[in-house]
Amino acid sequence: MSQIKKIVRSSCRGCHGVCQVLVHIQDDRVVKVTGDPESPISRGYICPKGQAAPELLYHPDRVTTPLRRKGKRGENRWTPISWEEALSEMVEEFSRIKRESGPEFVAIGQGTGRPYTEFTIRFANAFGTPNFVGPGHVCYLPRVMASGMTAGRLPVADIYGLGGETPACMLIWGCNITHSGSADGMCGGMLERAIKKARKVVVIDPRRIGPVKRADYWLQIRPGTDAALALAMIHTIIGENLFDHEFVDKYTFGFDKLTEHIREFTPEWAESITRIPADVIRAVARTYATTPPACLQWGNGVDMNSCNFQTARALLILSAITGNIDRPGGDVFWVPPDAIKPKSVFVNPDQAGKQFMPPESKNRMLTAGMFPLWAETPHAPSFWHAQVTGDPYRVRAMWIVGSNPLLTQTQSLKIEESLKRHIEFTVVSDFFLTPTAQLADLVLPAATWLEQDDVVSLHKIWCVLARKKVAQIGEARDDRDVILELAHRLGLHEAFPWTSWSNYIEWLLEDSGMNFDQFCERGIVVGKMQYHKYRTQGFQTPTGKFEIFSTITEHLGASPLPVYREPSYTPVSRPDLTNEFPLILISGGKNRYFFHSEFRQIPSLRKASPDPLVEIHPDTAKSLSIDDGDWVSVESPYGSVQMKARLFDGIAPDVVHAQHAWWYPEEGPPEYGWKRSSVNLLFGEDGFDPETGSEPMKCYVCRVRKVEAC
Ligand SMILES: Nc1nc2c(c(=O)[nH]1)N[C@H]1C(S)=C(S)[C@@H](COP(=O)(O)OP(=O)(O)OC[C@H]3O[C@@H](n4cnc5c(=O)[nH]c(N)nc54)[C@H](O)[C@@H]3O)O[C@H]1N2
Ligand SMILES: Nc1nc2c(c(=O)[nH]1)N[C@H]1C(S)=C(S)[C@@H](COP(=O)(O)OP(=O)(O)OC[C@H]3O[C@@H](n4cnc5c(=O)[nH]c(N)nc54)[C@H](O)[C@@H]3O)O[C@H]1N2
Ligand code: SF4
Ligand SMILES: [Mo]
Question: What is the per-residue pLDDT across 262-272, written as a single tens digit (0 to 9) for each?
């Protein structure tokens, strides 16, 4: 029998997605996925999650038809139904609740940014619900918000060097994508290349991560104290006159106020907070300011603490006063291809930002007014609190599209209670029956990236990639196709003027002169990069300048110049807890083999990372009679979970690091053992950043003790 082999060029979405890949097909079956060596964005890089895509695609546990619950919630009894039935039921329930109580009583839940983000937000807006719940307050958005208010947009490390220069100096600040693969549209493989080329590398991380091998400085910072370090670096750079006078004079607002403000933030002050010697802080500040061009590659290490927005602002200011904003090899604003329409989360594609939501619904957003800088979406932990208490109200329906909040968010037990008892109608769209999906009334089968056609705009958008559908499993559907049909059935035509998903794709490509097939043949379209755009365009801020002093922040009632706040749970802020909980807990450093709670059922990935690990310094382990590989209990004032000890001398003796989002698909429904090792069971319901509501997921308190094998 002859075998038909072909290779399709596509782009992977095993994580946030950035790598171009080759999909190998034999007899209509995807047999292998490899990196595309010709890709300018990933140059052949592929990580284990990308390689495991065929295992995900053909996994026997995938949900392949819509499922309706029979029996009680969480009994794992389901009736397969048609899409027609599923969508009719959603229309009926959502319309009834909207009519009876108002649109805000239907909430939309989403996890991290995914291919369909532009449609879920658009749907919520068009339907009229402000209750769109996700992890934005602890992930990425604080950096985006700080950048928006300070500089108009998020600047990004110029690791691709499209202007002919790659960074000479790199700050790798609370980011570990050379290990995990990629984040926010930045490819870990390309970051690795840039690190190899750089003359100076500084790693700011409480853990000895991969890039430390090539680093000139590794600053093993006390978790959650980054703002103090950044302020002391600014102090040194201004005090030693190492700043870029021309940029500061012509293009910034508030430098004089900063000079005053920064006086007290000396390296000695920061040493006592961060544990980094003052001399080292000075040396790093000098290196950074005198090795242009320099870039900042930052990550969740600056997001998940009680000072995330202020930290992000301080880091942006460091970049600006050293003249690194929008210069080749610095921190740049990418230019997208102009002939392909950017995807838009707004309702009217021709009129960015048009809101369909009635103001009275917007004002009824749960948790509105709770945090001065977090106003657009509900604060997730407080949203779940409201479901349990009914104060100020409970939503009546929820559609969770691609999230596993039982594991990935804090307040896990409240989420369980809400889904089990309080929310009348829950729909979950997913590939698998997860612990969260087990509590739904309706489960919709979602298509993986191998089952999707897409025009992929990455977060940073200097290029747009093609993704080609090569398979179809059961009745799985692209979430956007489902949202589009549901929107039409609900009469939301103005917000969704496209007849189908393929019609939407053709609309995106309309001005490019290519149809989708031609676009797929090209595989990637790159924008024409320009640097120093502020020289002619200024910055998109109220003053038109880079706002060192943030006028919007001041207006919103937060400090307009960056400040340091001691994290909410440390031996300094909570000495009352130190005796019982002497260790600092970092959680959720991203695992190369998993994407949050995903892939625990994928054989090759699980084999590579079989158990939930907690990293402990050997001296600490010894004092607790813990050996490498022992099962231990990690305990906080609010809960305890079991994990396996991994002895690691690249972490301070009083700090431990626990992996997040663990469950055991092999243990079966409905709980799949999720209550045993999910680190999010450890966090309480306070200690939030008072401005953004961020949670102390990277800086908490705990103790560890040995337990019998579990
Ligand atoms: N303690 C602690 N907790 C953390 C973190 C941490 O560092 N520490 N990190 C946090 C961060 S940064 C984030 S962004 C969140 C992430 O939180 P989530 O986004 O909730 O995380 P995932 O486990 O990726 O959840 C996704 C679910 O969506 C499904 N899914 C994946 N792709 C699709 C798709 O295209 N369509 C549909 N319908 N379903 C899909 C998966 O099968 C999975 O069950 O977790 C946060 N949780
Ligand atoms: N394989 C894989 N890739 C992923 C994900 C995944 O789950 N798996 N998740 C994706 C998502 S949604 C996101 S947001 C990104 C996140 O990707 P990253 O931004 O790389 O996030 P983390 O790995 O959580 O944390 C990065 C580093 O911060 C350090 N850190 C912890 N606390 C502190 C601190 O207080 N200060 C400093 N300076 N550093 C600290 C940790 O030790 C860790 O090495 O990754 C994305 N990519
Ligand atoms: S880093 Fe992400 S996009 Fe790249 S191969 Fe891995 S899973 Fe795919
Ligand atoms: Mo994230």
Answer: 999 999 999 99
Rounded to the nearest whole angstrom, what is the distance from the C-alpha of residue 433 to the centroid of ligand 1? 14
Task: Please work out whether the CB of residue 224 comes within 6 Å of at least one atom of ligand 2.
Answer: yes
Q: Is the confidence at residue 314, as pLDDT, over 50?
A: yes
CATH classification of the domain holding 696? 2.40.40.20
Query: Residue 586: CB within 6 Å of ligand 2?
Result: yes
Nearest Cα residue to 291 out of 201, 159, 162, 194: 201
Q: Please indicate, yes or no, whether residues 88 and 156 belong to a single structural domain of this protein.
A: no
Tell me what percent of the residues of the chain surpass a pLDDT of 70.
97
CATH number at residue 545: 3.40.228.10
Q: Residues 183, 218: one domain? A: yes
Number of structural domains (the chain) is: 3
Indicate if 302 and 226 belong to the same structural domain: yes
Which residues lie closer than 8 Å to 176 by C-beta, 6 or more apart? 205, 207, 209, 210, 299, 589, 590
Give distance in angstroms: CA of 190 to centre of ligand 3.
12
> For a substitution probing ligand 1, which of 597, 602, 663, 694 has the most ligand atoms within 8 Å of its CB?
597
- Tell me the pLDDT tens digit for each residue of 614-646: 999 999 999 999 999 999 999 999 999 999 999
Burial tier of 599 (Cβ tally within 10 Å: 0-12, 13-18, 19+): buried
589 CA distance to ligand 2 centroid (A)? Answer: 5
Residues 414 and 321 in one domain: no
> pTM of the predicted model, to two decimals?
0.97
Q: In this predicted model, which residue has the larger pLDDT, 362 or 595?
A: 595
Return d(Cα 437, Cα 426) in angstroms, integer: 9
CATH number at residue 428: 3.40.50.740
Which residue's C-alpha comes closest to atom 45 of ligand 1? 408
Helical residues (DSSP H) of 128-222, grouped into ranges? 141-151, 177-180, 188-197
In this model, does residue 350 exceed pLDDT 70? no
Residue 512, in any domain of the structure: no
- How close are the terminal C-alpha atoms of the chain, in Å? 50
Task: Express as a percent the part of the chain with pLDDT over 90.
Answer: 91
Q: How far, in Å, from the CA of 66 to the mean position of ligand 3?
A: 28
pLDDT of residue 370: 92
Residue 558's pLDDT band (boundaries 50, 70, 90)? very high
Whether 460 maps to a domain, the answer reads: no
Whose alpha carbon is nearest atom 47 of ligand 1?
Answer: 408
Answer yes or no: are the C-beta atoms of 190 and 43 closer than 8 Å. Answer: yes
Residue minimizing CA distance to atom 12 of ligand 2: 112
Q: Which amino acid is present at 524?
A: I
**548 and 592 in a common domain:** no
User: In this predicted structure, what is the pLDDT of residue 38?
Assistant: 96
**Given 525, 555, 585, which residue is the final one in a domain?**
555
**Which amino acid is present at 356?**
F
Task: Examine the pLDDT at 1 and tell me if it is beyond 70.
Answer: no
- Does residue 678 have its Cβ closer than 6 Å to ligand 2? no
Give the end of a domain, one of 555, 583, 607.
555
Atom 44, ligand 2: residue with shortest CA distance: 176
Gap from CA of 565 to ligand 1 centroid (Å): 29
Q: What is the mean pLDDT of the chain?
A: 95
Residues 92 and 167 in one domain: no
The reply to whether 235 and 327 lie within a common domain is: yes
Q: Is residue 249 part of a domain?
A: yes
Could you tell me if the CB of 292 is within 6 A of ligand 2?
A: no
Provide the pLDDT confidence category of residue 352 given band limits of 50, 70 and 90.
Answer: very low
User: Does the bond joining 293 to the residue before it have cis omega, within 30 degrees of 0?
Assistant: yes
Question: Which segments within 143-251 are labelled E, that is strand?
Answer: 156-157, 169-173, 182-183, 186-187, 200-204, 217-219
Cα-Cα-Cα-Cα torsion 567, 572, 573, 578, nearest 10 degrees, comes to 110
Q: Tell me, in angstroms, the distance from the centre of ligand 2 to residue 21's CA.
A: 24
Write out the residue range of the structural domain in which residue 582 sits.
575-706
Asked if the structure places residue 596 within a domain, the reply is yes
307 with 433, same domain: the answer is: no
